[in-house]
Amino acid sequence: MTELRPFFNFAGIATREVVPVLLELLTHQDEDAADDEYNTARAAYQCLSLYALCVGGMLISDVLQFVEANIRSDDWHKRDAAISAFGAIMEGPELKVLDPLVKQALPVLVGMMDDQVLMVKDSAAYTLGKICEQCGPAIDAQLHLPSLIQALFSGLKDSPRMASSCCWALMNLADRFGRDNTEEGEENALSKYFKDSVSALLQTTER
After folding, report:
1. Domain count across the chain
2. How far apart are CA 199 and CA 206, in angstroms?
3. What CATH number did the domain enclosing 152 receive?
4. Tens-of-pLDDT digits for all 207 residues of the chain?
């Protein structure tokens, strides 16, 4: 029988020192980087995501302070970093903790889909996709869905990079609300958007 290794909670203890460094590194974007090119900001995002998986809600306070301080910044690097930071912690903390935060953030993120900077818009689209994937129950069909769907449809007409993120978000939305069906053929919250969704996706495919 394999003996379990001692658990010292090193990551949790180091959270207040490590997370602020990762958040600052998120602002080191390279706007000329290719989609598959690894750079400082992308490495920081991946590390923050893994840290969230490891320590859960312990990093929420630091991340929220960073988001609130930078989401409206005149510097697009900081706006983009704030959006990315929020998306990075969607997997790890418990849903009951993230739920009110997501509900508060959704209108802001939908609004950021109209940002003047492509990288900011793309980060918003990707973060919305992450929310749809990991925190779907926090999305209220009546309150959030109309504006969210419209923003994603608009994003499909944007750059290929943006369209890809919006397709992923729509797929996760379909997975989230499709589970509300109890019988085959029964309608759900997405049913009334079905024809428009198919049309928008086909137009994107033709591009």
Report:
1. 2
2. 11
3. 1.25.10.10
4. 556 666 667 888 889 999 999 999 999 988 766 666 778 999 999 999 999 999 999 999 999 999 999 999 999 999 999 999 999 999 999 999 999 999 999 999 999 999 999 999 999 999 999 999 999 999 998 999 999 999 999 999 998 888 999 999 999 998 888 755 445 667 888 888 888 888 888 888 877
Domain that holds residue 119: 105-179+188-207
Residue 93 Cα distances to 57, 64, 86, angstroms: 5, 13, 12
DSSP string, 53-66: HHHGGGGHHHHHHH
How far does the chain reach from its first CA to its final CA, in angstroms? Answer: 58
Question: Which residues fall within 8 angstroms of residue 67, CB to CB, at 6 or more apart?
Answer: 82, 83, 85, 86
Say if residue 124 is in the same domain as residue 195. yes
Q: Evaluate if pTM is beyond 0.85.
A: yes
**Cβ 173 vs Cβ 132: under 8 Å:** yes
Measure CA 193 to chain center: 22
Cβ-Cβ contacts under 8 Å for 159 (sequence gap 6 or more): 118, 122
- Is the residue at 99 inside a domain? no
